[in-house]
Design a protein that fits this description.
Blueprint lengths: L1 H36 L3 H10 L2 H34 L5 H7 L8 H12 L4 H6 L9 H25 L3 H9 L4 H29 L3 H7 L6 H11 L3 H30 L18 H30 L8 H7 L8 H5 L3 H29 L6 H8 L6 H12 L5 H26 L3 H9 L4 H29 L3 H7 L6 H10 L3 H24 L11
Helix pairs in contact: 1-12, 1-16, 1-18, 2-12, 3-7, 3-9, 3-13, 4-24, 5-10, 5-13, 7-9, 7-10, 9-12, 11-12, 12-17, 13-24, 14-24, 16-19, 16-21, 18-19, 18-22, 19-21, 19-22, 20-21, 21-24, 23-24
Length: 547
């Protein structure tokens, strides 16, 4: 009964939070749009948008680029997830920490990094003497989304594969199954929930992508999110903008409900055998080792190539090696530019403000996701889970405007931005923690308590070591995702609250590209320090899974 009461309390509390800071602002946004359109104006805008062939071309492209991006990420991450889940190798922890960097880069930095690496005058074309146009087209959008999200797929799928009991392999091998049959009959079916989860989350993120599509898609290729922004901020047509946002929301809800049903069909039928310590495996044949090294080399170039290009460009602002741009961020006299005047803040203030905001909103997202994961453990609640995953495919532009209109006069800007950023991180964090909690067996706690351990000691000595890897994954993403937020900070704060992405955006906007790239490199170093610290607290023991 106590567990049921706690479950109801957290479920109701989470639903109330979503109602206050997600559903209410969105509803108010649509209400204001309808009110400004006048009697029959919203219906006329809806009819006009739905009858336009351009709308359907935009819809088809939104779905196609999202599906292609998600499929590309899952396919690229699959070998790495399998290897990292079953093998330890030198530098694994460092690669795991550094690999999170692309996922939390502001879109403006991703654009610069991708142009510097894949552009017509980029590093690849210079190395091979070609003039390929790899980015200003749909392929560039898929590449950029892959750069953003492949590490997310690696972590989610790696955790899923690491959670498969090794005894299944041993039994299959004793019955004569070779590696291919074991993969097709054991790893693939049992890893399907993790692969499906990665595909769905990346699909929804790509479906609502804004900055990447805006730059690389140009006029010819737009998504519903770009249309929402264009109608609102370029054409100043709030009613038409709200129609595009509503269409995107309806489609996102549909795909989440469909995907959630498929995932639950896998997840709740999956055997829950206890995980065992991974024994030292047999020596890897030279052919397989060479293939693995080649794979990680290609993956490393794909992930770190654009970052290396960005770093080199920041250190060669005038074609000569120099650290003047980095010095100018803290001492602007050498280049004669007023950095604080451009970004409206000092760099130390930007760093501190960004860290406090991301840790505040990230902690709230983590605690809310963890509480709801335990409250919903072993339960099928499609309606509530659909609500919890709704922010993944929602237009953050619409949410930010609704929050500003509804609470802008009553709540301080940092609190309002932090409350909104919870929804940016929550879907990913909840999926990670939900999977982690579902794998935890209550029998562990019951056994500990039957041997005389109190609830506190049982949680500290039994539950936490088992859940540690998944909890740290969730904590890393809960802090990292708000750190990169640009849309909500600009939409709600309107430039009054300066974080890393806002400062970089302003420097680029004032054509201080060298300073913007230097600040981007500094941003990457701060992210790397945070993630490496989080991963290092987990130790090197991967006994209980998680990538």
């Amino acid at each position: 009964m106590t567990r049921n009461r706690r479950g109801r309390f957290f479920s109701v509390g989470g639903a109330l939070y979503f109602a206050a800071f997600f559903l209410a602002p969105l509803s108010y946004f649509y209400f204001r749009a309808a009110a400004e359109a006048g009697p029959g104006g919203f219906a006329a805008a809806l009819e006009e948008v739905l009858s336009s062939p351009a709308t359907w071309r935009t819809l088809v492209f939104s779905l196609a680029q999202a599906a292609a991006s998600a499929l590309f990420c899952v396919a690229l991450a699959l070998p790495g997830a399998l290897i990292s889940a079953r093998r330890d190798f030198p530098g694994k922890k460092i690669l795991r920490s550094a690999g999170m960097i692309p996922f939390v880069l502001p879109s403006i930095i991703v654009v610069i990094a991708m142009i510097g690496f894949y552009g017509k005058n980029g590093l690849l074309n210079r190395l091979f003497g070609t003039e390929l146009n790899l980015i200003y087209n749909p392929a560039g959008i898929v590449l950029a989304h892959g750069f953003y999200n492949v590490t997310l797929a690696l972590r989610i799928m790696g955790e899923g594969f690491a959670g498969i009991d090794l005894r299944y392999h041993e039994i299959a091998a004793s019955l004569g199954d070779g590696p291919v049959r074991r993969f097709l009959r054991i790893l693939l079916p049992l890893g399907a929930p993790a692969a499906a989860t990665a595909f769905i989350i990346i699909f929804l993120y790509s479906f609502s992508s804004f900055g990447i599509v805006l730059v690389f898609g140009g006029v010819a290729f737009s998504t519903l999110e770009v249309k929402t922004y264009t109608e609102m901020h370029v054409k100043l047509n709030l009613s038409t903008s709200s129609v595009y946002a509503l269409l995107q929301l309806v489609l996102a809800v549909f795909f989440m409900l469909l995907a959630g049903k498929l995932i639950r069909r896998f997840q709740f039928s999956r055997p829950r055998a206890p995980k065992t310590t991974i024994p030292p495996g047999p020596a890897v044949p030279p052919g397989k080792k060479a293939a693995a090294l080649l794979y990680f080399l290609i993956l490393g170039i794909f992930i770190f190539g654009p970052l290396a290009s960005l770093t080199i460009r920041s250190l060669r602002p005038m074609g000569v090696w120099s650290a003047r741009a980095f010095a100018a961020l803290f001492r602007p006299e050498p280049l004669g530019r007023d950095i604080e005047g451009i970004i409206r803040s000092g760099i130390p203030g930007v760093i501190l403000r960004s860290l406090l905001l991301s840790f505040g909103s990230g902690s709230a997202a983590f605690l809310l996701a963890l509480a709801l994961s335990f409250a919903l453990r072993g339960r099928k609640s499609p309606l509530l889970e659909g609500l919890l995953y709704l922010p993944t495919g929602m237009s953050m532009v619409s949410l930010g405007i609704g929050l500003r209109l509804l609470y802008g006069e009553t709540l301080p800007l940092p609190l309002l931005i932090g409350a909104a950023q919870v929804f940016v991180a929550f879907p990913v964090v909840f999926r990670i923690l939900r999977t982690t909690v579902e794998e935890f067996h209550p029998a562990y706690l019951e056994t500990a308590e039957s041997l005389g351990a109190g609830k506190g000691r049982a949680l500290r000595d039994v539950a936490f070591p088992i859940l540690r890897r998944g909890l740290l994954n969730g904590l890393a993403y809960s802090v990292a995702i708000p750190f990169t937020d640009f849309t909500l900070v600009m939409t709600i704060g309107r430039g009054e609250y300066v974080t890393f992405p806002v400062a970089i955006y302003r420097l680029i906007g004032f054509r201080s590209f060298d300073l913007g790239m230097a600040l981007g490199v500094l941003y990457i170093l701060v992210c790397l320090g945070i993630f490496f610290w989080i991963d290092s607290t987990g130790g090197s023991d991967d006994t209980f899974g998680g990538n």
